[in-house]
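Let us work through a complete example step by step.
Step 1: write down the sequence.
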Amino acid sequence: MHVAAANPQSVSRDDIDPKLVEGEREIYAKQMEGKPAEILEKIIGGKIEKFYSQICMLEQGFIKDPDVVVKDLIAKVGTEIGDTLTLKRFERFQLGV
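Step 2: predict the structure and record it as tokens.
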């Protein structure tokens, strides 16, 4: 249900193409032209973190409880059942556009 609703692009940030992240970083830098360099890096860093939280499933807020991040939910459930759970992959099917 989460995959269908949140449309993550990858499981974790390790799976994201570095070129995509660099492209996003360039877009954010252009948007923030004129800001001081030390502030610029902090702003861009925050925007990159937000980018990851939107496209990486483990960093997204769980669709049923957005205050809980998916990786924290997986860890909690693993603790409750006395095992370690990991998310390795997912498949999303979409009809139409």
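Step 3: interpret the result. The chain has a mean pLDDT of 93.
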